[in-house]
Amino acid sequence: MDLLEKLKNDPQNPNLYREYGIQLLKENRGDEALEVFSTGLVYNPFDYVMRFWRGRKYIGREMYVQSASDLKLAAMTNPEDWECWYYLGVACYLAGLYEEAKAAHERSRTNMIKYGIKAVPATVDWYWMICMKLGQKEEAQAVLDYVYPGMETEDGDYLARTLLYKGYYKPENFVEERMKEIQNPERPRIYEQMLTFGLANYLHYQGRDEEAVPLFKSLAESPDNRSLFAVKQAMEQLTELGIAYTVPKA
Length: 250
Hints:
mainly alpha
């Protein structure tokens, strides 16, 4: 008996909604999964898995406050899950809730280190950006102590960016040189866009907006990978700077 048939026979079972929603995610049917999770949460509002995934899907829809609401409950229900805190930090950052984003990424980093998760550069990068937004430059510099050249990580693009902030890499030809170092990248265009945003953001905080803005615009106006955080962040940064950009037609 498949999950849909089981749901027909047991329509108030939150576990079945969770399973079916995850199945839909694996089939890249995200919008349908969001609706299934929403229904499942009626029957178990404290199911952190459904809360987490619905929150993730809300980020893709640019519903950042709604995302943060779901992800905060998911994180508090399962406080040892680094991913809940990580994406809560992302949602809060994109919603402009910087102090909440900062606290979330601190919790995420603590859990990553505690459980040996090889994604520390990613949460360090977000924490650095948050501190810079808040004008806390000394704290932004201090968090870079958690990254170093050659560290084992799942996120080579985030590691490269944080090493740029740290001064290990220079901004000149940063993207081009880092792209040469990628060995069999799974998604080279995404890697390039992530590096480009890191460089643009670094230049912005160095007071070099004449160089940063064209990079932000190249991302904000890119027709590909519209759901990428680097693209969404570039749009957010241009809006904050009061600079117009053109969103490509779907």
